[in-house]
Amino acid sequence: RSKGSPAMAGAQGESNHNGVGDEGFAPKKEGFWVLYQGCWLRPVAVESVKLVQEQFQARPDDVLLVTYPKCGTTWLKALAFTITNRLLHPAAGDDAHPLLARHPQDLVPFLEMPYRQIQHPVAELEELASPRILSTHLPVTLLPPSVSGLGCRVVYLCRNPKDVLVSLWHFINKVNETYTIDKAFELFSKGESSYGPIWEHNLGFWKKSLSESDRVLFLKYDEMMAQPVEHVKMLAEFLRVPFTEEEVSRGVVEDVVHLCSFDKLKSVPVNSSGVSDWIGGVPMENSSFFRAGKVGDWANHLTEEMAKKLDGIVEEKLRGSGLTF
Ligand code: A3P
User: Fold this and answer.
1) Among 18, 76, 242, 294, which is most buried by a count of CB atoms within 10 Å?
2) 137 is catalytic
3) Residue 15's pLDDT is what?
């Protein structure tokens, strides 16, 4: 069985969508996902997306952290949490900092699915105090209309698709050995991956970030890795809790970067050991979210031919948009 995230859980070789004939569905040939309103989802994810669409009550001051799976969700959650809670929990010198006791994934709830420790139905998000920070893998087309209608802000984090593919493959392959790199490549290149196609996901938020730049902050994993301090400052401003000059001079931004860094988080016992209950009792190793944390690790796993082919597909899909990887 899959240990996957809401996104990954799809790639476990299930073929239980047979007979799904609802509107917006098209049967998938090879057995992992169904196409729901243009987005590949596992059947169980379709159910929870419908629940979000029916039940989620957005608030104007909500901020959504949106990612395609394996683009750095865990990192973004850690950063957003640390930035917004820094008065109560300073990033340095606080032995009681929540990130030292809880997995970053558990500190910011997912919108569309009970996730790890947070087993809420959508309606329970109502109980969270404002301003809420929530997380989702949903493409722009599947977000409840109130999110845009109420002007909720979105932080979108994307990543080079080749690194996403490799990260995804490692993640799923831990629990499903039939998901070979060849298979993963074949499906991913066709756009078939939970919440895919990835280029549609990226493009949807890219366009929003151009047309509604005050509402959508569009970030790239590679750039964040290269310039973490600048990005943490940018994120804090977007979250409306900018660093003061005094904080900057005290090195608070660097403290946030350090606490949320791959090496630091990976070393925290709650992230390096143990298993969490996933969805419906599926076991999930906490360490699965901290693998290599590198830019360009694809080169160790994809052949040159694969890389060239995927680059070509992505370039063609993004052509004319201004978005490049
Ligand atoms: P790799 O598999 O390439 O190492 P997500 O959180 O969306 O599931 O993405 C997981 C990817 O982000 C993994 O990539 C993981 O190692 C990387 N990651 C996790 N925490 C990180 C951090 N603090 N900084 C940078 N990358 C991180």
Assistant:
1) 76
2) yes
3) 31
Per-residue pLDDT at 257 exceeds 50: yes
Give me ligand 1 centre to Cα 222, in Å.
Answer: 11
Report the atom number in ligand 1 closest to the C-alpha of 105: 6
Distance CA 205, CA 211 (A): 10
CA–CA separation, 46 vs 44, rounded Å?
A: 5
Helix-strand-coil split of the chain, %, nearest 5? 45, 10, 45
Q: In angstroms, what is the span from residue 22 Cα to ligand 1's centroid?
A: 35
Could you tell me where the beta strands, DSSP code E, fall in 113-209?
133-136, 153-158
Mean pLDDT for the chain?
A: 87
Q: Which atom of ligand 1 is nearest to the CA of 171?
A: 2
User: What percentage of the chain exceeds 90 in pLDDT?
Assistant: 70
Domain count of the fold of the chain: 1
Measured in Å, residue 131 CA sits from the centre of ligand 1 at 26
Range with top average pLDDT, 40-44, 105-109, 114-118, 305-309: 305-309
Q: Which of 137, 170, 201, 301 is catalytic?
A: 137
- Give whole-number Cα distances, 190 to 186, 194, 198, 225, in Å: 7, 12, 10, 28
Read off the CATH number of the domain in which 260 is found. 3.40.50.300
**Is residue 2 a part of any domain in this protein?**
no
Q: Is the residue at 63 inside a domain?
A: yes
Question: How large is the ipTM?
Answer: 1.00
What residues flank ligand 1, with Cβ below 6 Å?
A: 67, 69-75, 163, 167, 170, 260-262, 265, 289-293, 297
Query: Packing angle between helix 161-173 and helix 181-189, nearest 10 degrees?
Result: 130
Q: Is residue 76 part of a domain?
A: yes
Residue 17 scores a pLDDT above 70: no
User: What phi and psi values does residue 311 have, to the nearest 5 degrees?
Assistant: -55, -45
Tell how far the Cα of 19 is from the centroid of ligand 1, in angstroms.
36
- Give domain status of residue 305, yes or no: yes
The pLDDT tens digits of the residues spanning 216-226 come to: 999 999 999 99
